[in-house]
Design a protein that fits this description.
Length: 254
Amino acid sequence: MQHRTNEWHPGTSVSEQAPGVYFAEGPASNWTVVRDQTGFILIDSGYPSDHPHVIESLRYLGLNPADARAMLITHGHVDHTGSAAHFSASYGTPILCAPEELAHVQGKEKHQVTFGQVIIRAWRPRVFRWMIHVIKAGALAAEPATRARAWDTEMLRSLPGSPEVILLPGHTPGNVSIFLPRAGAIAVGDSFVSGHPVSRKSGPQMLHNMYHTDPAAALAAIHRLDGINASVILPGHGPALRMPLAEALAALGS
C-alpha cells in the first residue's frame, strides 16, 4: 500500500532490501538508492512533489544529495523523473537513461497517458482519486531534465552496484529494467508493478493498458527478463517483492 503524502516518513518508507540497496516507497511512486564504497546512485525519483521526500530519504541514509554519482531513469514519465531536473540544476548530478528514451526524458517527446484517456475513466473512484493525486503531485508542471544524457555499458559498470540495463520497449520506447547483479536485485520501474492506485490487485501485475505506449509490446518485452537471477524486485509502484523473478514473471501471463 502506498503512503499518503502528508504521512510520509523515511523511517517507515525506506528499507534495505539487499546489501546496499535501499527501496523508498513514495506516496504513489517509488525510487531506489544504491550505494557501495565508491558512493551512491539513485534509480528514478518520484513525482515532482516527491522531491522533499527524495532528499529526506537520502539524508536519512546519511547521504548528501549533492554527492549522488548519477540518477538513472527507467523511463521518462513524470512520476519517475520528478526530481531529475532539480538534481541536474542544483548539484550537477548526471541524469542518465537509455538512448531510446533520451528525447522523452529531455522533454522533446511525450509518451504519457493522455487527459482524454483518463477523463473517460474518471467516473471510476480509483481513477478519479489517482487523477487528483497526479495533479496535486505537480505532474502537469513537471520540468524535463533537459541536460540528461544517454548511458553506455562502460559508464554503467563504473557506477555503484555495477548496474546492467535490459531494454523493455512498450511501456515507453526506451523503457528499461535495471539489474543489480551483486545484490540479486532488479529495479523494474513500470515494466511491471506490485500495485497501483487504480488497481484492486496486489502482487506482480502489468499496469492498466492506458499507461503503455504499446500494451502488447510491453507484455511481450517482459520475456527479455527470462533467465535473470534476481530474488528482490523493486517496482515503480507498490511494495518491494522478495520472490524469484521467474515466479513474478509467471504471474503476469503471456
